[in-house]
Amino acid sequence: MEVNIIHYLFEALQILKFELFIGLVVFLIINWLQRGKNLPPGPRGLPVLGYLPFLGSEAYRTLHNLTDKYGPIFSFYLGRKLVVVLGNYDVVKEALSNNKIMDRPKNPPNHLLPNSTSLSVSNGLIWKEQRRFSVQVLRELGMAKSKMEDFIQIQLNMLMEVIDSKKGSPINLDEILLPSVSNVVLTMLTGRSLDFKDKDRLFLNKMLQTMVVFFRPTRFHAYFPSLRYWVAKLKIWGYDQAEYYMDKFEKFIVAQIENHKKALDNHYVQNYIDSYLLVLKSKAEKVSSFSEKMLKGNFQSFFSAGSTPSRATVEWCFMSMLCYPEVQKAIHEELDAVVGKDRRPTWNDHLMLPYTMSVIYEVMRQNTIVPISMLRCTSKRTQIAGYDIPKDTIVMPNIWGVHHDPKDWDDPFIFKPERFLKDGKAVKPQAFIPFSYGRRNCPGEDMAIIMVFLFFTSLMQRYSITLPDSDSGIKQVVGVAKLVILDNVCLKRRF
């Protein structure tokens, strides 16, 4: 009798498990089919995964194509997270000016550094305090001033020495441009740069090359954060490499902080770490957002965001010179007429080099180095373009789409530097937003444009760039930044 009861209970339990499973499946399907009232239209995707499997490696193109069907604002689910995509300038301006769309989501894709937080992933008063402090310090350290130009010139000297040694033979420009640009940022953060062959410098190069794809706003871990540990453990999609480099990068940052603690001089502050440590000392007894965890995260944010997009822009500029030899010829002529051959270009020259500036702007528009801006999140229920957007909705600005919208750009897929020229001056139309829009745009915008200008003009003044006869093609990488890898080009001295 007891055996029969146990048998029946076991069978009932099995039936209950099956019914619960079926119920869960039905719930997920119904939930998937339902859309909130007055949400922006959009594709349904799949249960659980949402539209994530359909975005492809160039998600910004997929999103831009979807605007043809759904309009400049549409929505879908990535995983179980509702995402609203902004596809033209008007909706980007409206949304990113809205104080209810100022936050970052809880698991932003760029937050992979262990035991840290940062201004780029923080919200509210914490974000405001950290951004205000960081921008002020970087300006005091020379961002967008002649002092930063000195840092850049030192790196250009090292870079040109390597290029000259090749005497016009094929060279891996990416291999030497990456540390050169990155060293400018490193100098502002730590007070010193690293030799190209230094072991720490070689590690940082590899870390930047690896991590660019993991900071992409459409990566798996941003929408399934609880599974990140397991995909790394099982070595799926390279997440084990991401964990390895972020752990090692954390140790590098900690070592930098400890070294600066030992040598800290209240009267001689020459870098970001020292400035931050002094604030930590002065606020030891007060409640504030300053902490070593925040310092680590801010270091990572500035180093990554300051290194990769700027280097990528310079390489895309050179890629355009390869594609459009007549543009390269025109830039050489303008540089020769304005700067000559006896001195290097300076930032003060940019107003007298309108065609060169227009080429830089067109490179930034056509290629849109950060094609999908850092994600935002609604802190409260709000509206965009008349649609109701629930609290905690992810907002995804497709900057590449903005830069290829025929409403704002004539022949958007054609390389036309003259679109940025007006009355002999280089101008920036309102729909040109390579550094995003609003109060949470890139805080290093001024630094980035000066770096790109000086690296590009200094190298163009001295060299012409061509492909070797045996060229085997040029590699592209799409991550948080859109990269072209110039690993086989010829830079020949012009004089």
From TrEMBL:
PROSITE patterns: CYTOCHROME_P450 (PS00086). Keywords: Heme, Iron, Membrane, Metal-binding, Monooxygenase, Oxidoreductase, Transmembrane, Transmembrane helix. It holds the Pfam family p450. GO terms for biological process: organic acid metabolic process; xenobiotic metabolic process. One of its GO terms (cellular component) is cytoplasm. SUPFAM superfamilies: Cytochrome P450. Heme binds at C442. It comes from the Eukaryota. Its cofactor is heme. GO terms for molecular function: heme binding; iron ion binding; oxidoreductase activity, acting on paired donors, with incorporation or reduction of molecular oxygen, reduced flavin or flavoprotein as one donor, and incorporation of one atom of oxygen. The keyword rRNA processing does not apply. The chain crosses the membrane at residues 12-33. PANTHER family: CYTOCHROME P450 508A4-RELATED, CYTOCHROME P450 FAMILY. Belongs to the cytochrome P450 family. This is Cytochrome P450 2J6. It comes from Nephila pilipes.
